């Protein structure tokens, strides 16, 4: 339908503060900003067409700027339960600047109704269903729900995550 390119801003929501799992003191000692990298988002990044441009901002390790939103055609976000507050905030920010937003990951999978403000929901493991999202986006859809079939994804067919999108020195 159109030249197939898309600028994707991936935003990893901030975890709630003061959790044991943030390992704050260990990070301080090691000069890192957060223990673990956003493995889900960089896996999704590897499932997108090669000519789509991707920018990753991890709200636990770096600043999100208005310029990032201005650059993007679409925002992808999501994570687990302790990231819910910030994920909902990110969706609000997207709506405020009129950027379509896709939410995925374990928390929306458990509680989709809480995330009804997002344009798209990707429920469950993304490996087999991102292709349906991509087809919908290309034909001009601006909302939809994509749900992984019951059962487990064959992770031997999962692509290598886009580790190149990470700034590795930020992590433990
Ligand atoms: C490793 C792990 C941890 C580690 C590391 C977490 C980290 N920061 O990376 C540790 C031990 C620290 C941890 C801790 C906790 N965890 Co944990 N953890 C996991 C585990 C086992 C694997 C996560 C993972 O990396 N998977 C691999 C990646 C590739 O998968 P993924 O992130 O799910 O991404 C896939 C899809 O979800 C989807 N996807 C993900 N994001 C997005 C975004 C978009 C836009 C799209 C389209 C798709 C998409 O695409 C990916 C490919 O299919 C999961 C269970 C599981 N088997 O998945 C629980 C799980 C995520 N944890 C969970 C919980 C509850 C916790 C704790 C709150 C437990 C507690 N009570 O303290 C803490 C909180 C941590 C914190 N920082 O505050 C729950 C979350 C439930 C929910 N509703 O969100 C899970 C699902 C376990 C469960 N079944 O209950 N955890």
From TrEMBL:
Organism: Komagataeibacter swingsii
InterPro entries named in the record: BchE-like, Cobalamin-bd
Cofactor: [4Fe-4S] cluster
Molecular-function GO terms, alphabetical: cobalamin binding; iron-sulfur cluster binding; metal ion binding
Keywords: Iron, Iron-sulfur, Metal-binding, S-adenosyl-L-methionine
Protein's recorded name: Cobalamin B12-binding domain-containing protein
PANTHER family reported for this sequence: ANAEROBIC MAGNESIUM-PROTOPORPHYRIN IX MONOMETHYL ESTER CYCLASE-RELATED (PTHR43409), HYPOTHETICAL METHYLTRANSFERASE (PTHR43409:SF3)
GO cellular component terms given for this protein: cytosol
Pfam families attached to this UniProt entry: B12-binding
Stored Gene3D superfamilies: Cobalamin-binding domain
Keyword Iron: yes
Residue ranges annotated for the B12-binding domain, each copy included: 32-130
């Amino acid at each position: 339908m159109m030249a197939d390119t898309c600028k994707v801003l991936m935003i990893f929501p901030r975890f709630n503060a003061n959790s044991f799992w943030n390992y704050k003191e260990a990070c301080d000692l090691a000069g890192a900003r957060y223990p673990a990298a956003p493995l889900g988002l960089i896996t999704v990044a590897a499932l997108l067409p090669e000519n789509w441009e991707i920018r990753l901002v991890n709200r636990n390790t770096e600043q999100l700027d208005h310029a990032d939103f201005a650059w993007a055609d679409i925002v992808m976000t999501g994570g687990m339960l302790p990231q819910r507050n910030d994920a909902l905030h990110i969706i609000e920010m997207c709506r405020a600047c009129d950027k379509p937003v896709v939410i995925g990951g374990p928390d929306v999978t458990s509680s989709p109704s809480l995330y009804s403000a997002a344009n798209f929901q990707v429920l469950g493991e993304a490996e087999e269903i991102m292709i349906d999202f991509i087809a919908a986006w290309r034909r001009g859809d601006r909302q939809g729900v994509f749900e992984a079939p019951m059962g487990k994804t064959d992770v031997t067919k999962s692509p290598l995550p886009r580790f190149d999108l990470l700034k590795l020195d930020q992590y433990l």
